[in-house]
Amino acid sequence: MMRSLPYFCRGEVVRGFGRGSKELGIPTANFPDSVVDQLPADIGTGIYYGWASLGNGNVHKMVMSIGWNPYYKNTKKSMETHVIHAFKEDFYGQVLSVVLVGYIRPEQNYSSLDALTAAINSDIEEAQRRLDLPEHQMLKEDNFFTGSPKRIMNGH
Ligand SMILES: Cc1cc2nc3c(=O)[nH]c(=O)nc-3n(C[C@H](O)[C@H](O)[C@H](O)COP(=O)(O)O)c2cc1C
Questions:
Q1: Ligand 1: which of 15, 64, 80 to mutate, most ligand atoms within 8 Å of CB?
Q2: 141 alpha carbon – ligand 1 mean position (Å)
């Protein structure tokens, strides 16, 4: 189905619409258009799970929303990563490296912010469960994450 998975990409964290942490309590890091525009055609909009690291740091579980956020009716396609880890500071300007491992569900519109938040929290649980499978540990240890973060590389 999605032949491009696992998909590796990295880029600088740019400012998004800024609703992530304020309204939802779930901070997300946005990639610049250059990264979004390079996504292969078979990686459609929707919610994905995988691994992420900032700079040359530790590798954490992540969930990513790719698309237009129907709830907010965005006009620009975005890739928003929620790294499943409690960071002390914002990471704007840092290099975020991610590998998309699998697909969870399509993007949806929700009737309330509470419903959207509940959906994202259940995505996080789903990602936690799936990434614990032994077959996904190898990707966590991939040298993509230990190499120099200065090299911007998208794709395999
Ligand atoms: C795991 C995950 C799932 C999401 N699912 C949806 C969704 O189904 N529908 C939607 O409109 N937005 C969805 N979003 C996007 C949120 O609406 C978005 O993170 C929020 O608008 C904050 O974005 P901002 O910080 O760029 O403003 C999802 C985000 C994440 C991290």
A1: 80
A2: 28
